[in-house]
Amino acid sequence: MALLLLTRPHLHWLYPPLFLLWANLHAGVAFGGVVLVVAALAAIVTEARGGWRAVACRSCASVHWALITLLSGLATVLNPLGFGLWWYILDSFGDTTRTYLSEWQPPNLDWPASYPFFGLVALTLAAVLVCWRSWRGQRDWTLLLLALLFGWLGFRSMRHTAFFAVVAAPLLSRPFREWQPLAKQPGARRWANGALLAGLFCGSALIVGRAWAAMPAQPLSGALVAAVRRCPGTLFNTYDTGGPLIWQVPERAVFVDNRQDPYPADLLFRAALAEQQGAYEELFAHYNVHCALVPAAGPLAQALRRDSWQALFQDDTLVVMQAADAR
C-alpha cells in the first residue's frame, strides 16, 4: 500500500492514518517508514540535480515528502508502546536469537528455497540495465533505491526477500512499457484488465482454499492434546509447538513458543540445544520438567526413552512423554 500511493499525490493524505493503523498491528511499519524516507531523499536529490532555482517556480516535492514522512512518523507513536515501539525495532537488529531461526537465515546456494530470490535479483538487474537511460524522476529513483536497500536486506535474511519482490515488480515491467500496444478502445481494455484480475483472484482463492481444506482442522490431534492435559508437572515443548499449545491447551503454560520476543535468549538457546542434541538433564532439572512434547524421531525423544521416560501418546511426528518419577 505504501508503494501504491507513491504515484497518487491526491491520496498522500492517507499515509498518516495508514501508518497509525499499521503501527498498532505490526512492527513491520518500519518498512513503510523506509519507503517514505527513501521517497523524501529521492525528491531532494532529484530537485538538487534539476537546480533549486527551477524548482522554486513549482511545488517543492521535497517539502511535501518531508511533511508526509514527519506526520506519518508521529502517527506511529500513537500505540500502546509509544516510542517504545521504535526502541523495540532498533533492539531487534541486535537480537542474536534470530540467527538460529530458518526464516532469518541468509539465502545460499545449498538452500533451494533461495533460488527464486536469486532468479528475481538477476531479472531485476537485467531490467534495470536494459532501461537505464529511461530512469528519471523522483518515482524512478525511489524504486531503484528501495530495490538496492531491500535487495541487501534480502541477502541478509530470507524473511526480507518478500519485500524485494514487491519492489521488483514495477522495475521488471519497465522494459515492456515501450512495447505495450495502445488499445483503440480504452473502455474495453479496462474491462479486459478487470476480467483478468478477477480470474487471477478466483484461481488463487481456489488453490489456497484447496490447500487449507487439505490441512487438519487443528495442528495437534485430539489424542495428543488429551495426553498433554493428563501429563503432570512442568511441560517442556519445542519452539514450533508452543503456538499450537497456546491455542489448543490454553490452561497449560508453554515452555517456549515462536513469538520468541517474550523469552530470554539463553532460554531459547538451551531449549534448542536440548531438542537438537538431546542434552536435556540440566535444563529439565533447573525448571523441574516432568512432561515433554517433542518430535517423535528426534534426539531428545531418543534420550528420554533411554532414561526410562514413558510415552503417553505418539503420532507420526510428535510424542508426549512423562518422567518415570512424575506425580
Give the number of helices. 14
- Beta-strand percentage range: 5-15%
Order of strands, widest sheet: 1-2-4-3
Cα radius of gyration in angstroms: 26 Å
Name the poorly predicted regions. 53-58
What does this protein look like?
The chain has helices spanning 15-23, 29-50, 52-55, 61-75, 84-92, 115-130, 137-156, 161-173, 186-214, 222-230, 242-248, 265-277, 281-287, 299-306; strands spanning 234-237, 289-295, 310-314, 318-322. It is α+β, with helices and mostly antiparallel strands and 327 residues long. The protein has three domains: 1-93; 95-174, no CATH class; 222-322, no CATH class. A hairpin with a 3-residue loop joins strand 3 and strand 4. The longest helix has 29 residues, at 186-214.
Core attributes:
14 helices, 4 strands, single chain, 4-stranded mixed β-sheet, elongated, alpha+beta, about 325 residues
Topology:
Elements: H1 15-23, H2 29-50, H3 52-55, H4 61-75, H5 84-92, H6 115-130, H7 137-156, H8 161-173, H9 186-214, H10 222-230, E1 234-237, H11 242-248, H12 265-277, H13 281-287, E2 289-295, H14 299-306, E3 310-314, E4 318-322
Helix pairs in contact: 1-4, 2-4, 2-7, 6-8, 7-8
